[in-house]
Amino acid sequence: MSNRPKPLRGPARGVGIPAESAPGAAINYGQLNHRLGYAIRRAQIAIFQDFFSAFAVLKIRPAQYSILTVIENNPGLSQTQVAGALGIKKTNFVAMIDALEKRALIARRPVPQDRRSYALFLAPSGMTLMPKLHALADEHEQRIIALTGAQTYALLAEPIRAIARLAPEPGE
Amino acid sequence: MSNRPKPLRGPARGVGIPAESAPGAAINYGQLNHRLGYAIRRAQIAIFQDFFSAFAVLKIRPAQYSILTVIENNPGLSQTQVAGALGIKKTNFVAMIDALEKRALIARRPVPQDRRSYALFLAPSGMTLMPKLHALADEHEQRIIALTGAQTYALLAEPIRAIARLAPEPGE
DNA sequence: TATTGTTATACTCTATAACTATA
DNA sequence: TATAGTTATAGAGTATAACAATA
């Protein structure tokens, strides 16, 4: 995925969200026009690109923002708990936490009651970073709202979360 | 991503779509609960998992279905055109087309007018496969509709495509 | 000079198996 | 035996640079 900030939006595009418009004739997306999954995939890619551009200055990616936010709101959870909450396999979670710890944004603390596990907390620099991240995320959210309109936006969250329940269970 | 068919749905889960419920206290997703991008990300993962399970029997992945559908509806397009329409870089498109050609689902035909490019067409076995794929996709779509309700479903496509326009331009 | 298809390459994300140290 | 964290590894997906053939 591109991580250099690009100017948002180009010329208006068709229902299938094509690249530009085909030189000769427009491309027919056929059945893809009636697949919500395809539209959601394209929307998710677009949201990630906007997120990347906005957060590039702080070198934070979407998954890192979600991890930091869960730790901020639930200090002391174990790696397994945070990974499970975010649908990340614990085996892949290790390197992610390593990176955040190396940047001194979070800290692993031993748990006396269970010496196998670590409790996760924001480190001081993580605490000072979070307000900036949430501010950037708010601006990012405003750009989405601008595209849908406020009324429509308010109606989207519920059905989209319902669709997320198609998944058996996230993570491991 | 898991590709073995799993039973869909488990017990109802909270707004943040947690793994199960935390053993002790429920996990607080904080600001993530107000990020549409996070919900869309989880929905997209869930849709892909359901798609994978449903299409595993035919060994077709989401990107392959989209490629085949575009070629079916626009026979004779070049690789660059199809890749551009789907937001796939032409450099990554080569291996995808190779795989579909090796399975005799599509064919590259030389273009006399421009000997640099290939025109893409469905091969005979690709043509017989498409109705089965669209039937599976219809069932997949019905599962999504069942989760949102038909009225809500009908309202989702438009704003979701609007959000997709956040992207600068897809592919290369 | 520019474009089409291509190779090589690298980095991220995601998945499984197997290990260790604890419980 | 089971669990928390870990390592190693492999496969997709996606990104860039550079090339040959052709325009």
- Global outline of chain A: globular
Sequence stretches where pLDDT stays below 50 over 5 or more residues of chain A:
1-23
Residue-averaged pLDDT of chain A, rounded? 85
- Give the strand order, joined by hyphens, for the main sheet of chain A: 1-2
Spell the H/E element sequence of chain A.
Answer: HHHHEEHH
Structural class, from secondary structure content of chain A?
mainly alpha
Largest sheet: number of strands, sense, barrel closure of chain A: 2 strands, antiparallel
Quaternary organisation:
homodimer
Largest interface: A-B, 78 and 78 residues
Radius of gyration of chain A: 19 Å
Cα separation of the termini of chain A:
25 Å
Give the percentage of residues in beta strands of chain A: 5-15%
Number of helices of chain A: 6
Tally of extended strands of chain A? 2
Level of helix content of chain A?
A: 40-55%
